From TrEMBL:
<dbReference type="Pfam" id="PF01740">
    <property type="entry name" value="STAS"/>
</dbReference>
<protein>
    <recommendedName>
        <fullName>STAS domain-containing protein</fullName>
    </recommendedName>
</protein>
<feature type="domain" description="STAS">
    <location>
        <begin position="44"/>
        <end position="130"/>
    </location>
</feature>
<dbReference type="InterPro" id="IPR036513">
    <property type="entry name" value="STAS_dom_sf"/>
</dbReference>
<dbReference type="InterPro" id="IPR002645">
    <property type="entry name" value="STAS_dom"/>
</dbReference>
Amino acid sequence: MILLLKILFFIVLNITPGDMIFKYDTKEKLVVFRLEEPAFNANLAEDFITAIHNLKDLDGRSLVLDMADVQSIDHPGIEAILAVYQEIYAKNLSCCLANLNSALTAQVNDAAGDQFINIVPTVSEAMDIVMMEEIERELGLDIDEGM
């Protein structure tokens, strides 16, 4: 019975043992992607990018990255986040990071250099930013495209 539950768990999350652990929640105009790993390192960076690229529900939707469980990020992890962030904006959609602790927020901002990154304390605020940028695009207003 326990084995069956483990198999079902991995099928539902569309992951296999040993892969990066994440959950996602699809909304009408966005996807909330929650990385459930304490350390976002080089070993997970490629898996992260692949998971985002393979996420069919993301097609035509903006992205909120919920980083509540992440306690550390190395340089390849930050580069993966920034690459996904730029890809989302290149599709004329929005991206926002939520629940990063203050040390990780500083790391991401430092790595981003001149690029503006939407980072907010909660997923609710991230969803608000994404929806506000969607309204601005619909109204034809000039938004900062996260860049």
